[in-house]
Hints:
Helix content: over 70%
Number of domains: 1
Strand content: under 5%
Distance between the termini: 38 Å
Largest sheet: none
Order of helices and strands: HHHHHHHHH
Radius of gyration: 24 Å
Amino acid sequence: MTEARRDTTATAKPKTFIGKFFDFIFRMIGVMLFSALLSILIEWVCIAYFYPDGTGYSNSQDMMHKEIGYLGVGEGDTFSDNQLIGSVSGVVDKVITFLFVDSGLMDKVAALENPKMTGNKFVDFFRNIAADYYVFLVSAMYIMATFIIRLGILVLSIPAFILFAIVGICDGLAKRDLRRWCGGNESGYVYHWAKRFTTPVLFAAWIIYLSVPYSIHPNFIITPFAALYGFVLMVMASKFKKYL
């Protein structure tokens, strides 16, 4: 049994670039689904226990309108910036319109507020339950719309992460060269720990921003995490082995 395990370990091949790419894509999809469910659950808990009576879904509705403003406010100084923001805003608008308006979901949810009885006890039972939790259903719909808007904002923030990554790597390589020529010590332990934090920092930025239960300017979340991402890459590059 021990020899078989050794053989299996020895023959295990490292993931290729394509394998790592698809693994990253599937992880991002998992992060987005988790963030969407978490944001809905947080909003429901706040409605049930923390928001004042009568607030209902107004908080999620106001949050959606503010996020729309954040998506459209970032007008760039160049035509290409405005074109990119306009393209992302257009895609977000089309996705929300398709999911909630064209699909008829908004009308169906609105009809649940005052359900019509059909005479079928089974159907009427579930319609009454849906009417009792109408506020929660509408808030979930607004939260999902907010989620899509924030997703568009995160797409627009990718260049910020790339910029901080480039600065961090360049600074780290400069420190590495100084360490190389000044006879500094190796620190593989720090390098491997910094390497482990690269992906979690990205995922944490997405999860926190997509799940936060109140409207907040994206710069207050994206900029610190982009800077942290650059710092992690700087540490990783600076502690990379001196001689390749």
